[in-house]
Amino acid sequence: MRDYQAVLSSHEISKKITDLLEDIDPIQYNGSNRARRVRNVNDYIQGRNDMPLEPLLDWAAKADGGAYAGKVAVLRQSIRDFQVQKALLTVPYTRTSHKQFEYETIELEMDRPMKVIDQQIYDRAAKAGFPRNFFQESYFDHVTLYCMPDNANCNFSHFSDCSFHVCRLYGVKFWDTRLYGCEFHSCRIEFTLFPDSTLANTHFRDCSIHSAAFLRSRMTRCNTVDCSVGRLNFNGARLDGCTYGRITRLPNSRIEGLEDASITMGGATQEEVRYNRNAIFHALGEQDPEHPPASRDRPPGPER
C-alpha cells in the first residue's frame, strides 16, 4: 500500500506560483488580475484547462540569471506530490491497527469526554493504521487529514480549524458533528452523511461530491467553489450566508430538499436574501420553485 501524505492543495500551489511571478516581474504581474491568474493556474493543475504553465515555469527558472530556479523546482515538486496524492483518491485506505494511543481528553459537553487528536497522533495512526473508533467522539485541533478508512465514523466529533487535503471520504458519517473553520480541498466525497451537524466557516473547493446528505445540517458562511456534484440532499438544512460558485453537475445528478431548506443571511435585507437564494439555485443548476421563470405571453391565435 502506497503511503499517503499531506500535500499542498492545488489552490495553495497556484497562489505560490502567482506570488513568484509577481516577485519576478511586478510590472507585468502587478496583482490587478491576481484572482483570475490564481484561478487559471489552479484550473490547469486540476486538469480543467490547457494553460501553458510549463513554459511559464521554464521562464521563471531562467529569470534573473537563474535566481529563482530553486523556488521553481520546489513548486514543480509540489505539483507532482499533489498529483500522486490525487491518484490515490480512487484507492481505499485499508491499513488497520489494534494499537490504541494514549489520548488527552476534553469535555466540551457534559458527560461526553472526547479524545484530543493532534497532528502527531493523526500522522502516526495514518502510517500504522487507524484503531477502532479513532474518529468517533474525538476533538481534532488544527489537523491536516489526508486519508481516512472507508465508512469511518466521525459521529459526535469536533473538527476545529482542520483541513481535509486531497482526502478520500467514502461512506463517512459526520452525525451530530461540529466542523468549525475547516476546509475540504480536492477531496473525493461519496456516500457521506452530515446529518444534524454544524458547519461554520467551512469551505469546499475543487472537490467531487456525490451522494452526500446534509440532512438538518446547520451551515453558516460555508462556500462551495469549483466542485463537481452528483446527488445531494438538503432536506431540513439551514444555510446561513452560504455561497456556491462554478459548480459542475455530474451525470445522473440530483439535488433534493433544496427548495425546503432554510436559506438566510444574518443581518441582510429581504432583497439580499432573495438574491442569494436565487444565486444558490442557479449555481447548482436548479430552478427555484418560489421564483419560476416568467411565462411568455402567446400571440393571439387567428380568428376563425
From TrEMBL:
Gene3D superfamilies: E3 ubiquitin-protein ligase SopA. Residues 283-304 are annotated as: Disordered. InterPro entries: 5peptide_repeat. It comes from the Bacteria. Residues 288-304 have a biased composition (Basic and acidic residues). This is Pentapeptide repeat-containing protein.
